[in-house]
């Protein structure tokens, strides 16, 4: 089984010395070993296949950023928002908190006019923290990505601002189409279990090919753009 990434969990091993042994307990963060086929979140993949190519073109045009930079950054932004929403669920009220955020900020009807939505968001002040959804990790991630791709931090922050209603609207759409609130909450538990900054750092350290989903989804999005 090809190993895609390892997160940590505590484990123990025995270090034998003389007639006895010392138990050494190594605390890491969690151990998950995933094969290549399982690494990609089904929700993120579905989102990218459905909206990725159009979003890349609109963002590049509105922000005057190269499509290649947007194509590389976009797959990192969706998991960031998913992780932020899971943290809101875990820390501030469970499923009711998720429902509140989706009802307030995730209008599925807006998905019918992506060009208009993104054009409007491009004119708003950038907010990488998304009003607290991503917290301080949002601006830090924007700075990391801006350095890697040689674009301004406020342009990455604007991308985050523009992506938020799309991701939340897509989640609301899935909820309304039968997943229900409990289904969305379950998906967040499965797909939002990382750290925003750890995922972005992994993505950058591996040359935009690491992270939980960045490399695989970036390749997916590139192939979709070539088909259009």
What does this 3D model show about the protein?
- There is one protein chain.
- The chain is mainly α and 228 residues long.
- It has two domains: 1-39, no CATH class; 40-227, no CATH class.
- Helix content is 63%, strand content 9%.
- It has eight helices and four strands.
- It has a two-stranded antiparallel ribbon with strand order 1-4. The chain has a two-stranded antiparallel sheet with strand order 2-3.
- Helix 1 packs across helix 4 (114-122).
- It starts with 5 loop residues before the first strand and ends with a helix.
Q: What is the helix tally? A: 8
Distance between the termini: 34 Å
Structure classification: mainly alpha
Number of structural units classed as domains:
2
Strand order of the largest sheet: 1-4
Low-confidence stretches: 1-40, 208-228
The value of Rg in angstroms is: 19 Å
Gross morphology is globular
Brief rundown of the structure:
This protein has helices spanning 42-63, 67-91, 94-105, 114-122, 137-149, 153-191, 196-205, 214-227, and strands spanning 6-8, 11-17, 20-26, 31-33. It has 228 residues and is mainly alpha-helical. The longest helix has 39 residues, at 153-191.
């Amino acid at each position: 089984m090809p190993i895609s990434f390892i997160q940590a969990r505590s484990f123990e091993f025995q270090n034998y010395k003389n007639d006895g042994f010392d138990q050494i307990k190594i605390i890491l963060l969690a151990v998950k070993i995933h094969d290549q086929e399982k690494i990609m979140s089904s929700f993120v993949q579905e989102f990218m296949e459905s909206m990725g190519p159009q979003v890349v073109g609109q963002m590049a045009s509105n922000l005057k950023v190269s499509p290649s930079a947007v194509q590389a950054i976009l797959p990192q932004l969706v998991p960031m928002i998913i992780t932020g929403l899971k943290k809101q669920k875990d820390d501030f009220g469970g499923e009711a908190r998720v429902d509140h955020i989706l009802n307030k900020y995730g209008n599925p009807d807006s998905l019918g006019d992506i060009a208009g939505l993104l054009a409007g968001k491009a004119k708003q002040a950038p907010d990488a923290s998304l009003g607290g959804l991503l917290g301080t990790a949002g601006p830090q991630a924007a700075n990391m990505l801006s350095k890697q791709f040689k674009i301004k931090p406020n342009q990455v922050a604007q991308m985050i601002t523009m992506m938020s209603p799309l991701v939340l609207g897509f989640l609301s759409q899935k909820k309304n189409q039968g997943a229900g609130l409990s289904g969305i909450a379950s998906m967040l538990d499965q797909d939002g279990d990382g750290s925003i900054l750890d995922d972005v750092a992994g993505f950058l350290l591996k040359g935009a090919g690491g992270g939980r989903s960045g490399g695989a989804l970036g390749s997916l999005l590139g192939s979709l753009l070539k088909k259009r």
